[in-house]
Automatic annotation (TrEMBL):
Pfam families, per the entry: Lactamase_B
Metallo-beta-lactamase domain location: 27-206
Organism lineage string: Bacteria, Pseudomonadati, Thermodesulfobacteriota, Desulfarculia, Desulfarculales
Annotated protein name in UniProt: Metallo-beta-lactamase domain-containing protein
Organism: Desulfoferula mesophila
Domain of life: Bacteria
Cross-referenced SMART domains: Lactamase_B
Amino acid sequence: MNQDRKPRRLASGVFMVGGPDLTDPRDCLCYLVDGPQARVLIDCGAGPRAHAILEMAVAAVDKAPTHLLLTHAHIDHAGGAAEIKRRTGCRVIIHTDDAQVLADGDTKRSAADWYGLALEPLEADEVLGGDGAIALSDQEKLHILHTPGHTPGSLAAWCLTDGLKVLFGQDVHGPFAPAFGSNLDQWRDSMQRLLELNADMLAEGHFGVFRPADEVRAFIQEQLESHQD
């Protein structure tokens, strides 16, 4: 079902600003976290409609993103990074284990060849070696977690807003392939780490938004059960 092509408010300061029915069928679901000190775009789609994702983000909060957090270097999540960087000058953040894929525009490891697209190479501004954080205000942070499995450098993030713990776990469901550097054992450990957060809301990269906490837990556990040995 198509909905109005406008930002979707999920919680206070949290918006969906891109996705298949918002911007382009090839785009992952993209999210914006707004705070007094930072406006963080989480992933930026496959590239051809990066401008539309940016327009949606600006429409949500009347200002451009200050940061772009790439949960990994796959084309549907990172393809618009170079364009967003050019248009905003935002700080691009990625994990070191996926940074070279983005820097090289690697068509195999980025899955760009699956989509018939090219990944424009980009050197990130900040390369994480593990967990990290972005200050949203003097009190609140967007916490970044290294959650390898889908790719070696996969990241998740979470923040608190209005007493809710909102988790951004983009490719919780996989898929997994040798070309991506996937590791199912690492992924299972990462999913356990996400379960331990006891999040009230999960904003996933392809399956949508899950709430309340029992629905978040059920979805992650369902994925774990579907990839048993």
